[in-house]
## 1
Amino acid sequence: MQVNEVVAYIQARKDRFVADLREWLAIPSISGDPAYAGDVRRSAEWLAGHLSEQGFPTVEIWETQGHPAVYAEWPAEDPDAPAVVVYGHHDVQPVEPLEEWDTDPFKPVEKGDRLIGRGASDDKGQVFFHTLGLRAGLAASGRAAPPVTIKLLVEGEEESGSVHFADLLHAHRDRLACDAVVISDTTMWSADVPSMCTGMRGLTEAEVTLRGPSRDLHSGSFGGAVPNPLQAMAVLMSALHDADGRVTLPGFYDDVVPLTDEERDLFARLPFNEDEWLQSAGDSRAAHGEKGYTTLERIWARPTAEINGMWGGHTGPGGKTIVPHEAHAKVSFRLVAGQDPRKVQQAFEAWVEEHTPNGVEAEVRMQPGGVRPCFSPIDSPSVKAARRAMERAFGTEVLFTREGGSGPEADLADVLEAPLVFVAVGLNGDRIHATNEKVEIPLLLKGAEAAAYLWEELAVALR
Amino acid sequence: MQVNEVVAYIQARKDRFVADLREWLAIPSISGDPAYAGDVRRSAEWLAGHLSEQGFPTVEIWETQGHPAVYAEWPAEDPDAPAVVVYGHHDVQPVEPLEEWDTDPFKPVEKGDRLIGRGASDDKGQVFFHTLGLRAGLAASGRAAPPVTIKLLVEGEEESGSVHFADLLHAHRDRLACDAVVISDTTMWSADVPSMCTGMRGLTEAEVTLRGPSRDLHSGSFGGAVPNPLQAMAVLMSALHDADGRVTLPGFYDDVVPLTDEERDLFARLPFNEDEWLQSAGDSRAAHGEKGYTTLERIWARPTAEINGMWGGHTGPGGKTIVPHEAHAKVSFRLVAGQDPRKVQQAFEAWVEEHTPNGVEAEVRMQPGGVRPCFSPIDSPSVKAARRAMERAFGTEVLFTREGGSGPEADLADVLEAPLVFVAVGLNGDRIHATNEKVEIPLLLKGAEAAAYLWEELAVALR
Ligand SMILES: [Zn+2]
Ligand SMILES: [Zn+2]
């Protein structure tokens, strides 16, 4: 395969690529608003038609209890070749407040190198570069089929929580059997600093209720002589972290896959501006977290405990001098590679039980399940292969990031039992989920180029 | 003065006393409900008429911005004799839920020794025994005027917060000039264990707001790397007490008048049943408070800090994985003898400022003013005199209690600059503020007897 041929193929089809993408972007496939259900279906149908047109031998609409997904398969010539699932989504976020858009979110506009419209980056644009890349690879290699079997799965409910996605995966588990999963729904550090995500934090959530007296008591008559559940809650919640910002649950860090020196070095090479980051964090006044880790390490690769909500007693205007009868808190844990949500749940329940003072009764309600963290080590064969493809496309070293939150990726890893590889060219500045979402067209073309090289790299790595 | 003559006088007029009280109790002087404003005035007028009838040379209705008070004066013969203000109130609590009353709250009923009706104990009955006692004392001594000048002040807004009471005191400060204030609006330990209250806790209230980012942040993207205001609030509030249950504000205990060994001994002699007390405290599961003090000492004679309310972040159903942008808490301090609400306010503001972590902004809003604690040492001349009067009436040792909360008493002490003496015969079991309020008629008559002895005891003590 000649690099020049791949680039030449992509450049030659650039206008058509953008024109087709604009057509798709014009369909308002907002999955979170029932009023757009027909549009989400239209989006799936449009994509299915496009994929057939582009040569996918198998294209299907997969129904769910909610919005439909699109499945397309392009088998390798060699029946023993590895198979790779490519994941993306065709639904988009709502567009409110509409008056803050400079252009109609569903009338995509090109401004210089940018394409502006809802879904341009998240995730239609990033789904779209795969077909162009695949065809460029085929053209350059002169083959009729890719070196791995490609199984493109484009769901329609990601922006509304992927509610039926795990069911969908289980229903089609056999057909989705694969050796790796390529995720194209993340971002790169910046246009100048191409990067790959290697993991996402998991999650488990709990609600704690502490009960004292059977009713609110007058603090004049009883204050100072009976336990105050709010006081007990403050003590409990304050004990969840030590002075070094570490979570105090026994065994919490035992299973954590530690950051390697190499990964820390690579993180450190990202041109991170903490002041700008704090500004993006709601103008936070200072960084704060686990001692011994940088801000990026804290949000990407370290587990955390957060109080998401807390309440009890008199919360209205004015004073009410009571000892409240109960106190509540919502707590969530972000989990990283190696941690099991169920183990953390058990540890938290036991810890609350143990730390609840005499005279107060505790109840812990865990949200069932939780989200497992997902992680692909930077020295794993598929990550190394994808990195080579990205480096060939960008002509420069590709660094690594992670993401602090999670979508349906852990389901893919769990149900399909295959390693995840994140190949994406969106930017943090693409304003995804916000007004005036855009994508950089040259980066989408770089994405196509990387996708052109990806399959031969993975074919070697996964064999 | 002969004891027998006092008792004989009171017994002879017992029926008339109860009949008159029943007439007064039939007036629904609910100060908290504007619909009863006319009745509160009628109650004041009825009392004024009664006091004139009973021989008070001066009787006046004192207007306020709210409900009227009644003022009656009976000067001593000797113009140099001490003057004593007697405080009570003629308004009553609402009666809801009406269906839980066994009889009409405003159609007083005698059942055996009990008189049942709203205000029977709190506070009409306790105001009422003073006139009978005063007349019994005069009759027994054969004098036309009491040995001290008596200034009876019966307000009409106690059950709705005594909102205009301080103004009333300031307006009539000269006429209310006195050497002591007798308060008849508290309770005794029990019918078998007569006691006197010697102090009430003061109060100061604050609301604390901690601010972090300018908006709620996604805990996946930012959690673990910026300060969480709810976490900071938990740490702050948990630091308000040490492991021994003591309040950690610097200097908080510096001005506290310590309990004397004698007072602790007398408290300890009260037949206190902690299990029953816990049951009355909303079935609290355990006593809890400052180390080294009993439950009674904790609620009566030790200052406290209570979290009355706390809230922030997501408090609705389900989960929301955010780092909340702010957190709130309402805190109140009960204060005891020697403590100054303003000093505690300043200490709290400084403490919050000092203990707020980097990256979080704190705001403290104190409720202006606060309530000063009031306290009369058990060895003070007026308390000793009143105790003698009570012991003569009850024929047994009189013990001491205090109260954990406060009404307008501190205003009386502050504006009139005179010591308070609590003389009352209500019981904790009188169901004041509740349904089926009652008073024990024999205790009201004991109150009248104590009042008969009180003025000569005080005349000697205050001279
Ligand atoms: Zn997306
Ligand atoms: Zn009262």
Note: Chain B has 14 helices and 20 strands.
## 2
Amino acid sequence: MTNPLPQGATIGILGGGQLGRMLSVAAARLGFKTCIFEPGADCPASHVANAHIQAAYEDEGALRKFAASVDVITFEFENIPTSALDILEALKPVRPNRKALRVSQDRLVEKAFLNDLGLQTAPFAAVDDGVDLTQAMSEIGLPAILKTRRFGYDGKGQARISSPNEAEAALAEMNGAPSLYEGFVDFSREVSVIAARGLAGDVACYDPGENVHEGGILRTTTIPARLTTAQRTDAVLLAAKILNKLDYVGVMGVELFVTDAGLVVNEIAPRVHNSGHWTQNGCAVDQFEQHIRAVAGWPLGGGVRHSNVVMENLIGDDMDRVPDLAKDGTAALHLYGKAEVKPGRKMGHVNKITGPA
Amino acid sequence: MTNPLPQGATIGILGGGQLGRMLSVAAARLGFKTCIFEPGADCPASHVANAHIQAAYEDEGALRKFAASVDVITFEFENIPTSALDILEALKPVRPNRKALRVSQDRLVEKAFLNDLGLQTAPFAAVDDGVDLTQAMSEIGLPAILKTRRFGYDGKGQARISSPNEAEAALAEMNGAPSLYEGFVDFSREVSVIAARGLAGDVACYDPGENVHEGGILRTTTIPARLTTAQRTDAVLLAAKILNKLDYVGVMGVELFVTDAGLVVNEIAPRVHNSGHWTQNGCAVDQFEQHIRAVAGWPLGGGVRHSNVVMENLIGDDMDRVPDLAKDGTAALHLYGKAEVKPGRKMGHVNKITGPA
């Protein structure tokens, strides 16, 4: 499929969380239907989709049924089992492509890829055992973070090592999984670029947002970020470089550290990204629609912003603040319809419009 | 139910067209589930709803099932059969209430209601037969429009009478239905106020938009309308008067003619309104969310606008323009997912952001 997806075509989305939910709404807005593949019942995306195939990623029959019912496949998370991709790729276009997933599913591969592109990352070393760890500590220094190479998100699968006597416990926490030892970067702020690349190779980026994390979870994104014009340009060019190298189709989140020595890439996410939620109330075409446009072979939105926005995540008990937030006329609520409030669980976000861009 | 509707509650929507579709998305954004009642298969709202009960409005069993599965009921169109409302009202709160429907379902009742409130309307007379029509023509004059009292929308069920010899044909077009003879109003422009009233009686209005109709169908709405400050205030106060009198809960569209003798009410629609679609890209809380907030007993958004917008309907073959519109970075597309393009059919709309408010 290289022609633009026509009205009424169906976009298949792997994963039924809040990202799938907002992708589904964006797809509908462009006249597409959606089918969600998600093992969980009553998932957020299923509330706003045409169909929900509730099955495990190992269920070959369900995967085939899913592929047969859609025109193109995308995903809301990067840790899709390889076996599922093998089946789906043979049946329907999967966008973004396998290369982006391979790179971002493994922190070691990702950092090596970025360095090969000439981009800066935190100092890192592969750690499979205590010997590796001792060597990494001596080469890279302390403090540092030990992370599993795969399946990490929102601060999970990570252990901080501040002194050598914490090394053993950190290694134990990795539970034998191949890991990455990552040195700290001395940064003044964290920003991210939400970049998109279309089927024809065109690239469009939103202005970088400035992120504040708490406990490994994104707390707020503020637009515009406090960056010099040169930094802003660097950030966007750097993101475009990554997308082009991967022959990427869709939206990618590129997290950056701002340092005295330039921009350092923290990580890339081959999907719509929490730090891009502000676009829903700042732009005519938000990141979700931008992703759908790319995946559907449509022209990309330009990334132009009409308003400045502060996005705040509503995590766990933050939901108690919803009645008050609802009284603020400049606050746009986006709640995910999750049945249960849990500590650390992303329940929604609020985009506060702070003024014209 | 007087408490605010909690997260995860279900809002029932009668009607599955584009208005139900956009209401459903807005409800999801606030963490609600939705159930659509609509006789048609594969209706636009069903694509983004939790459930779709496909049944006739005369199907008592289906209506009861619908009522049992929702917490509150609203609607996207005013011509809901009385028998269906009788059943539903006894089971769950229906918002807006019956009074608003009674008034707006009958053009004669509506105009009398508005005049009783001290508001101006076009001159009118009830027409049931040729005798009535002859008298109306002589009293009100020509040209005029003969309209069925009930079930009209988008210019349907209407016949223009420019000279007495067109009277017979116009009457025949009414097909024996009780009708209304309506004189023309000499207006400089058409505007509309999208007004909302909450469960606690609070009222919030968006700034009036200026409408251009073609062939009885809304073509564009431009924000802001060309109005004096006094006219703007009058429009909003007048709308509030209507909502308060009806003890209304929800969003209402109030169409006005701007004349040298002040504002004349053309018609009221007890629902979200095509001329309020611009709010999706001009406000933090759009008319659809505003309606859901009212119906759910939540605080209303303030009606504040961050951007100026021109909304244009995409009617029938206008869909051929979508590929070009998709290339315009300031244009936000909203397509309805209707399977078939027909002449005169509303297929979508585009909100063009023209600048900060």
Note: The CA atoms of residues 285 and 301 of chain A lie 6 Å apart.
